[in-house]
Amino acid sequence: MKHKGKTNPPGRIKIMKSFSLLMAQKDFHSITTAEIAKNAQVTEGLIYKYFKDKKDLLYQVLNKHFVEFQTKIESRIAKENNCIKQLEIIIFSSLESYADNRIFSKILLLEVRNSLDFFDSGAYEMIRKYSRTILEIIKKGLKEGELKSDIDPLILRKVILGAIEHACLGEIIFGRKLDIDKVSTGIANIVFNGAKA
Amino acid sequence: MKHKGKTNPPGRIKIMKSFSLLMAQKDFHSITTAEIAKNAQVTEGLIYKYFKDKKDLLYQVLNKHFVEFQTKIESRIAKENNCIKQLEIIIFSSLESYADNRIFSKILLLEVRNSLDFFDSGAYEMIRKYSRTILEIIKKGLKEGELKSDIDPLILRKVILGAIEHACLGEIIFGRKLDIDKVSTGIANIVFNGAKA
DNA sequence: CCTATTGGTAAGTAACACTTACTTACAAAA
DNA sequence: TTTTGTAAGTAAGTGTTACTTACCAATAGG
Question: For residue A2, what are the CA distances in angstroms to A36, A52, B87?
Fold first, then answer.
């Protein structure tokens, strides 16, 4: 019998909690379904009542975290209407979110990209939305003359997103502590003012 | 009997070739050892004569590609001694290498990061060397006054590497064609001259 | 000519992701 | 009050997979 996805029964919640906990300790591939079930105190079969497969569980956990991330950032952006300030908020808030939500960033930056079916998932849809928001801000910045007219908005977005993601990798992989203030102002300084003397 | 790794027998070469070919078609996890062996026309057991496990095979294939990448870039850099020019060469050459060696970039940007034992591999040692080279150039640029004195070299490196990697993701994942000239000059323009009007 | 080593094979095995067939609980309809 | 439909959960599989073990054949050195 297939589940229709309307309710949110205790078993389902326990499975997601158990999986999140395990993701904090080890990488996706070395987590077994037996382990997930045992820690959740349910049987293995139940996982497949609520999730298509192990990857689907991963995507849904990511999605849950992403919703929080998105709403937090959007409310912060809304308070500003200077575009450069808004982009600075994005840089800072993204770094902050990645830093104090290791599971979220681990999944997003290390675990999901290698499989094509991620890009059909709801979690990926959220990323696109976030990404689109950034592009809108950049375009507005160009129109209002806050940004140089010869800037390609798509490339600027790549630079910003790439810098953010790369900055978090060391922290996620090696557990290095990241100085968010220093790194975010550093990135913003380079991206907006340039590095050339 | 353990292999000492001195010679390079035909079976070993066939396995690596077969695996490379499969990596061009699908992701690491959905490639089976049976498949690798069949396409290489050897038995499955032989894989484990030359490689510790499936991941080790991945790392060694990556390593092979990385050596070519590294030597190519270093010879290009040697021809310049203006630091900004050198960094521009790095941006351009990296994009170019990623673009015309999809397997290499797929492995490097999507497949290896999620497992901790990659960071003990020889392939990761190469990355560190490459990364160190970039840092040296930046430091030289600071000393010789080509770069602004308030720039943090580690952060500038993060921005450059992040931008390069992010720029390639779309191409690798979705097979989108990348305009290397446009993107590399675009990135360099932002990083060196800044985006603010 | 023997023997150690290397290249390679064949036949396993344990563990894993996922399935199937079943039970229980319970709410709404008849 | 009984019936029926369905959601929640279980128990016991199954096929596949990465990896292992034990073996064989060729060959080069002493």
Answer: 21, 10, 55
